[in-house]
Amino acid sequence: MGEPSKAKSLSWSSIGKSLIAGGLAGGVSRTAVAPLERLKILMQVQGNAKVYTGVWQGLVHMSKHEGIRGMFKGNGTNCIRIVPNSAVKFLTYEQLSRRISHHLQENGGDGQMTPLLRLAAGAGAGIIGMSATYPLDMVRGRLTVQDAKTRQYRGILHATRLIVKEEGLIALWKGWLPSVIGVIPYVGLNFCVYETLKEVVLKFYDGRDERDLSVMTRLACGAVAGTTGQTVAYPLDVVRRRLQMSGWAGAQALHAEGGHAVIYKGMTDCFMRTVKEEGVKALFKGLWPNYIKVVPSIAIAFVTYEQMKELMGVELRISS
């Protein structure tokens, strides 16, 4: 742990490098699992339709009807969103951790971050990162869901203009509340579990420095962290995605086999109607492909971030 004066601030160079590392971490990790990300969203919003019934079946269906490009549909928009989101999220967590650690030192403590403090810092980082890029997530969701039959948006700018024109400016923030609620346990647990697991491993190998941890060890810590956070927050992610689709004419085609297009009044209405009409299991639709996506995605993001910071000569430990 550094001196209090060092914990107070970072140079602009270190901040810039941290942002670059965080942005690359987000872009690389999301592109690696883009087909699974699209399958998850399609499963979340298909209602009672049975177009996508499983991971392998869904991937084969997408590949057969839309080709390889279709499997990565919406990934460009997703990267445009996730790169700044990830950059802000990692930097915010790092700075919140520094501030908390510095405060503990000033009050006579050792400055060590506890799991609960890491959870709080991660939650704050998640809220700030998500809020800063939420309209892009809304647009990305629409672009990802549409297929050849429901194609309505030609790209990010066209989708944004059309959504604002037809549904109003506030439509770009549909699903924001469940996103805020969901990001607290999700991102909070990601950082908390990842950092705590690394600490446990380092204590097991007494005397080792964090730089001695292998890539596989970090990947394993990231996988456990991502799975834990996603399990807790997943129902809110389903509600968020459904609220984003609510009111979109193209959603009618997605629900056609189920008999109706759904328009929700808000988060509570979405929760209640989803459970009433489709059962509690509907709150976990797409969870399995999401597990398969989250395990490598979160792991790759953490490892890429730390490796990039190491290559650029910035301190390695996120919460140091």
UniProtKB/TrEMBL annotation:
It is a multi-pass membrane protein. Solcar repeats lie at residues 13-99, 113-200, 213-311. SUPFAM superfamilies: Mitochondrial carrier. GO terms for cellular component: mitochondrial inner membrane. Pfam families: Mito_carr. It is found in: Mitochondrion inner membrane. Keywords: Membrane, Mitochondrion, Mitochondrion inner membrane, Repeat, Transmembrane, Transmembrane helix, Transport. InterPro entries: MCP, MCP_dom_sf, MCP_transmembrane. Gene3D superfamilies: Mitochondrial carrier domain (1.50.40.10). One of its GO terms (biological process) is transmembrane transport. Belongs to the mitochondrial carrier (TC 2.A.29) family. This is Mitochondrial carrier protein. It comes from [Myrmecia] bisecta.
